[in-house]
Amino acid sequence: MFTGLIEGTGTLLRLDRRGGDAQMLIQANFPMHDVRLGESMAVDGACLTVVSSQRNVFTVDVSIETLNCTTLGSKRTGARLNLERALRLGDRLGGHMVSGHVDGIGVLRDRCLEGRSLRLFFQVPSDLTRYIIEKGSIAVNGISLTVNGCTESHFDVNIIPHTAGETTISEIQPGEAVNIETDLIGKYVEKILAARVNGPQEPREKRQVDEAFLKMHGYL
Description:
The protein is an alpha+beta fold. Helices cover 17% and strands 39% of the residues. Among the domains are: 8-85, Elongation Factor Tu (Ef-tu), domain 3; 185-216, no CATH class. It is built from 5 helices and 12 strands.
């Protein structure tokens, strides 16, 4: 489990393809001398396992599933990556609950300056927008952000100078792909409510949790 508060960035030193999966060799720009083998690490929002480490350089395994569902497989040597170590019990939860299980890939469509902040507009698959709400939380390349507004295919976020300086978010240009993880609480709520009406075996596409349903069961 992670918070979406990026600890620092890293540089991809090497991406080794190994059959269907891969390994990434990454150099972090912050102290990581106490990283242990088997530890979880969020790399651009994807939860990966550390299989070797030496000082600030570490290696993670990347499964074929992760390569297919994230942007990691397209990264090239020298790419900068957002890094976050797993949350420890007792730590402050300053962002939101991030699992590191990427839901899909979004694309930056536009960006503009608003005062001292940067506003980014992303397009995402329609099956993800059902979990994106105005003023809700979302993780973009592992960064916990607040949704400013959303439609059936887009959402936008505001990037303050601190976040722009401490992560790679300000480097993204229109047309670039990003890893998206929606708020996991919404997914659990949908499944629980759908099961009450249709039963747990009902195909996902046939479940209908709409405003009328929520009013009928006292949620609105």
